[in-house]
Amino acid sequence: MAAYALSTRGLTKRFPGVLALDGVDFGVRPGEVHALIGENGAGKSTLIKVLTGVYAPDEGEVLHGGEPVSFGTPLAAQRAGISTIYQEVNLVPLMSVARNLFLGREPRGRLGLIDFARMHRESERTLREYGVHTDVRRPLGELGVGAQQMVALARAVSVDARVVVMDEPTSSLEPREVETLFGVIRRLRADGVAVVYVSHRLDELYEVCDAVTVLRDGRVVHTGPLKGLERLKLVSLMLGREIGEVRAEGTTKFGGDHEAASAEPVLKAEGLRVPHQLHGVSFAVRPGEVLGLGGLLGSGRTETAKAVAGALTPSAGRVTVAGSPVRTGSPGAAVRAGISLLPEDRKSEGVVPGLSVRENIALAVLPRLSRAGLVSEARIDALVRTFMDRLRIKASSPHQKAGELSGGNQQKVLLARWLATEPRVLLLDEPTRGIDVGAKAEVQRLVDELAADGLGVLLISSDLEELIEGSDRVVVLRDGAVVGELTGDDVTEDRLMEAIAAAAEEEPVTEVPAASVPATSEDEGAPDVTPEGGGSPAGQLTPHDGESAAPDPLSAPQERKETPHG
Amino acid sequence: MAEATALTRTAPDRSAVYAWLQAYGVYAGVAVLLLFNVAFTDHFLSAENFRTQAVQVAPILIVALGMALAIGSEGIDLSVGSVMALSTSLVALYLGWGPWTALAAAVLGGVAVGLVNGSLIAFVGVQPIVATLALMVGGRGLALVLVPQLEDVRDPGMRNLGSGDLLGVPYPVLVTVALVVLVAFTVRRTTFGRQLLAIGDSRPAARLAGLPVRRVLLCVYAASGVLAAVAGFLATARLQASDPTSLGTLMELSAITAVVVGGTPLSGGRVRIGGTVAGAVLIQLLTATLIKHDLPPSWTQIAQAVVIVLAVYAARERGKR
Predict the structure, then answer these.
(1) Which residue of A27, A430, B3, B115 lies most exposed, with the fewest beta carbons within 10 A?
(2) Main site of residence (chain B) (predicted)?
(3) Strand A211-216 vs strand A33-37: parallel, antiparallel, or unpaired?
């Protein structure tokens, strides 16, 4: 077997109070795609950062081509042929796409000036291979997150990397883009590049990875080929739980449907328009119902949630909560009306990283916990204790900075902040993205409970399984307009993909997208009607019940592998 | 193995040292200067000297309190020196109605400037450094329009406020102490304070959490304006003159220095009032020490620069791993 391209021996890394890596032996061979998995806090990110020169190990060593190395800086690692693609795009948004692609190695013409014509030509050619068709002179920031990720990938790969480390590269990609990415990965493998692939999505691992290393609590608990390793076994290794337990609980923690059909909508959005983003979006959420928002990246899901929550100012349209209109464009007004948004970008729009967990939880309810502007510490303590217990937020103390928590716990802190406001509507934009399996399950279970308690929930998720299992009804968006709705038995991955695909065939986009839509601003009265005429009351229908849990991949791991989903 | 373990120990220690320096370095600096002066400066340990130092530091400190709020909200207020000038002009104009009327006029002037700053920042979306720069230029202009040249301030009430004392503690010092307590309390215990820190740390997150971002920012700059106006009033009372040409010049820089040296990060989200007090005292002691030892005033500026660089260095190193 070939020698390792990059490996570690007895790697240990400590942070104040935490043993992040504990004697980790890890290695990836040329031409191998090696999955690195584990729950949040297992040490994946730390391992990557040590591999790529961001952190220096406390003990042990990194071997590059068999030789011990210490990179010291990410640049040194890059020079040695180790490229990293981080979860968040690390490029310069204001510079053009082409400049970003060639940053630091621009083609020079005579006089040492940048040869823009060549740069643009080569950029376009390179990016086409990655399925990005765009004007490379435009600032990178104008591209969607998925396309930006592709640019980052193209950049990382084109610097002649021998090892490529990908930290959750698909977390903001569309299924189509994921396919492109996998194509690139397979090509890299054929070229003998070693790929370290970090992801929470098991389907992807089985599709593209050869070997797997499972980390738990800073230790390697399993390493070996992926083939023949049962999916269920993998999950149980990650969680450190018995297989039976995992099987009993399934992958998502969503229960059945909620009885909501008869009630009056708690949230109604009518004809929401945001220039260039939304073209008359209408929908209604009833108390106790989880309404899914389906659609591709850029279809207006996030914008819809933001417009409802006042984070985007709509140019037209109405939002009502339990019949009373809410002033649009004001997050404060939305919060007071009982609308809570768990934003997609929880790091920059969700938690306040420098404040403690305690302050973060209390943030939105401060006025309610104060008298004459003076904060009551005792009441905050009581509130924080309640929610930290109820949501099982893991922090060293309520005074730990929220920014130091793992993604899952940050998300729980945000949920706690909103639940403290006693909301009537919860808008969840990618609530489980980038959080570990355990926390994901908890968040999903919580959403279920909240809906059962009568909250109206709007769920956005690019994880189809989560969207389907979590939602009672799904409204499908495309190009900022509602193009379909699934109810009852139609809430399945297949029907959802059909709805998205059907809509996507209506290219070119130039026609008014709202034309085929039942619920536009001209037709505000009936946002609940299904275009397919299915119209069966959602409450009576269970797309999956406990026995015939067909969409549950863990009870049927073998079939699952073949399922071409996403 | 032993070597690796040793490395392990030094790495966190370094960052811990800088963390300590950022948080407490300013107190250590003050202590060092005090000890140095006790040892080498004649008559340093006299009540009279302490009174002088305290009275001199009062305006810087009061202005720095407002600056700390602005910086905590991830902003800055460059207009404070000009607000002091405007304040002294208004005092000269309204002293005829008595010192309290003059104080009220000065404070109203400060509020007005602060509200303009705050509106530009919160509603128009101008960057704080630009908005307050405009007011820094315009404010002094307005002050000079109101009172074109130095005017003596001859009012027994004013003189008493500037030079009188209660049980040996000069009035300006009492006022300063009261304001320090008030601002510290506001930052720690009020909704406003918490909201300010959240906004300073992450404005998008604070906005989405439904916080009244604009109102808070408006209040921050209004408060900074009021504090600068009070500082201008006290300075006028002490100097027995209204001199809008020079009063408060470069005060914004001294205030920023006090705040930054005191460990409040320029990136917002954090306000250290204790550190700010120590920062102002440090600058004052540094100046006094150099003057007492017959070094030219320009040395003070160089010394200040060194202190600023050290403070920023400690803050930066602390962030590293």
Answers:
(1) B3
(2) membrane
(3) parallel
Q: What are phi and psi of A221, to 5 degrees?
A: -100, -15
Q: How close is the nearest chain A Cα to the Cα of B191, in Å? A: 5
**Pairing relation of β-strands A211-216 and A219-225?**
antiparallel
What range defines the domain where residue B111 resides?
Answer: 43-315
B189/A341 Cβ within 8 A? no
Q: Say which residues have a Cβ less than 8 Å from residue A245's Cβ, sequence separation at least 6.
A: A236
Query: Can you read off the two tokens belonging to residue A411?
Result: 């998300």
As to burial, measured by CB atoms within 10 angstroms (0-12 exposed, 13-18 middle, 19+ buried), residue B63 is buried
- When pLDDT is averaged across residues A355-373 and rounded to a whole number, the result is 88
Pull the structure tokens for residue A267: 């949230």
For residue A350, the number of C-alpha atoms closer than 13 Å in the C-beta half-sphere is: 28
| CB-CB contact of B161 with B171 (8 Å) | yes
Q: Look up tokens 């194509």; give the residue.
A: A183
CA distances, A174 to each of A91, A131, A169, A296, A464 (Å): 20, 12, 11, 6, 11
Q: Is the pTM of this model over 0.80?
A: no
Q: Domain with B245 in it: what CATH number?
A: 1.10.3470
- Residue in chain B closest to A349 (alpha carbons) equals B205
Whether the CB of B4 is below 8 Å from some CB of chain A: the reply is yes
Q: What are φ and ψ of residue A289, in 5° steps?
A: -115, 145
Inspect the interface and report whether the beta carbons of A336 and B210 lie closer than 8 Å.
yes
Which of A341, A356, A366, A410 is most worth mutating to test chain B (most B CB atoms within 10 A of its CB)? A366
Give the residue ranges of DSSP H helices in A85-174: 97-102, 116-129, 145-158
- In this structure, which amino acid lies at residue A274? V
Q: What percent of chain B has pLDDT over 90?
A: 51
- For residue B137, what pLDDT is reported? 93
Residue B15 lies in a domain: no
Amino acid identity for residue A29 in this structure: R
* A369 compared with B12, residue with greater pLDDT: A369
A355 vs B7, B197, B321: nearest CB: B197
- A353 → closest Cβ in B195, B202, B207: B202
Return all residues near A48 (Cβ < 8 A) that are at least 6 apart: A36, A84, A165, A167, A196, A198
Asked if B231 and B55 touch (Cβ cutoff 8 Å), the reply is no
Name chain A contacts of B12, Cβ cutoff 8 Å: 14-16
Contact B190 A373 (CB under 8 A): yes
CA A240 to chain centre: 24
Q: Give the three-state DSSP class for A171.
A: coil
pLDDT score of A511: 37
Which residues touch A259 (CB under 8 Å, ≥6 apart)? A288, A539
Whose CA is closest to A263, among A504, A72, A440, A528?
A528
Residue of B196, B202, B203 best to disrupt the A interface, most CBs of A under 10 A: B202
Model-level ipTM above the cut of 0.90: no
The amino acid sitting at B265 is P
Contact flag A374-B12 (C-beta cutoff 8 Å): no
> Other C-beta atoms within 10 Å of B264: how many?
29
**In contact, A420 and A364? CB cutoff 8 Å:** yes
Closest CA to B114 of B217, B246, B259: B217
Question: B11 lies in a domain?
Answer: no
Domain count, chain B: 1
Nearest by CB to A363, from B8, B190, B209: name it: B209
Does residue B270 lie within any of the structural domains? yes
| Bridge partners, residue A34, by sequence | A196, A211
Identify whether B19 is part of a domain: no
Q: Give me the residue from B7, B195, B206 closest to A58, CB to CB.
A: B7
Beta-bridge partners for B241: B152
